[in-house]
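In response to the reviewer comment on reproducibility (Comment 2.3), we provide here a single inverse folding case reported in full, input and output, so that an independent group could reproduce the run without further information from us. The structure tokens appear first.
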């Protein structure tokens, strides 16, 4: 995915974030949390699954570099 315009001109270590996808991921996480608060686990699971599926813009290397200490060796 390439960056559009000047939204990502500075040098950084993370990949370009799709500005349309990030709010969708955030919305699904918020809706999933709200569903859990209302004791609706199926609805919560649907929203969390949608957030993960929409969040495919996150590359493995970006996640690995940030959360390297949480890697589990099986």
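Designed residues, in position order:
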């Amino acid at each position: 995915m390439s960056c559009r315009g000047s939204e990502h001109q500075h040098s950084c270590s993370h990949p370009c974030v799709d500005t349309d996808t990030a709010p969708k991921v955030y919305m699904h996480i918020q809706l999933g949390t709200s569903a859990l608060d209302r004791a609706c686990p199926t609805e919560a699971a649907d929203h969390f699954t949608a957030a993960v599926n929409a969040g495919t813009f996150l590359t493995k290397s970006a996640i690995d570099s940030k959360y390297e200490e949480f890697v589990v060796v099986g």
